[in-house]
Inverse folding.
């Protein structure tokens, strides 16, 4: 894919993308670095992959900091932002990309802890570092954004409800963010081809992705959706703080 953001347009800026060692997060952080931003790559347990990505991005002439942190651990989150402050002094873009809840072996309340509580916790911890004019982007899915009015697959319902709860909790902070000169945008996409979530859903419900692709006409792939997330980090904030990516005709409005 060609350059997503103008070269040099983010020179002197610093961006942190949670869950950015792979998938949508990795491509988003790459697009921001290609535009000149120094970047922070956050991971939970994939250090070698995060370090490999950082090495690639440094070849673009930007700084890339790798910080491991389980976002459900407040101490780890505080330590992550302490390191960001030490290295960069502040933050201009925060992309809340990391999510989960379909992993096996996790506690019953893990989805809510990660998709709601941790998202709010990361934002709160980042606030002292976010400079005036900064941007916060929350990444979600149509299946979660519209869960109050449109049912989703049973296998995904717990995740969808927890991500919608996270979105709502973050939206409650828009007034405070506005007062600080910080923009907030929700980016919602359909099922994304090639993501962990799509793989898990397909495993639990064979044919689910093909069915959704047929219904929507097209599903974005990882790099295409990441490009939309990167654009949301720099383009004007929509009036309703929401960017809906892809077809929404089968979802009832919230």
């Amino acid at each position: 894919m060609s350059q997503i953001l103008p070269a040099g347009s983010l020179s002197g800026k610093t961006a942190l993308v949670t869950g950015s060692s792979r998938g949508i997060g990795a491509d988003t952080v790459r697009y921001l670095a290609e535009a000149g931003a120094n970047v922070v790559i956050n991971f939970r347990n994939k250090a070698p992959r995060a370090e490999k990505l950082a090495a690639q991005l440094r070849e673009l002439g930007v700084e890339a900091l790798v910080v491991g942190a389980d976002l459900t651990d407040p101490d780890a989150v505080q330590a992550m932002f302490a390191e960001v402050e030490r290295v960069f002094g502040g933050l201009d873009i925060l992309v809340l990309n990391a999510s989960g809840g379909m992993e096996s072996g996790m506690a019953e309340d893990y989805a809510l802890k990660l998709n709601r509580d941790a998202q709010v916790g990361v934002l709160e911890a980042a606030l002292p570092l976010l400079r005036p004019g900064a941007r916060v982007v929350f990444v979600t899915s149509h299946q979660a954004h519209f869960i109050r009015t449109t049912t989703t697959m049973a296998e995904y319902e717990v995740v969808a409800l927890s991500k919608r709860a996270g979105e709502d909790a973050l939206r409650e902070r828009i007034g405070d963010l506005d007062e600080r000169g910080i923009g907030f945008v929700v980016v919602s996409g359909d099922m994304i081809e090639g993501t962990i979530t799509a793989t898990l859903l397909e495993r639990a419900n064979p044919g689910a992705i093909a069915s959704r692709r047929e219904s929507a006409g097209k599903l974005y792939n990882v790099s295409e959706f990441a490009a939309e997330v990167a654009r949301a980090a720099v383009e004007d904030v929509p009036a309703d703080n929401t960017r809906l990516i892809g077809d929404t005709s089968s979802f009832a409005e919230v």
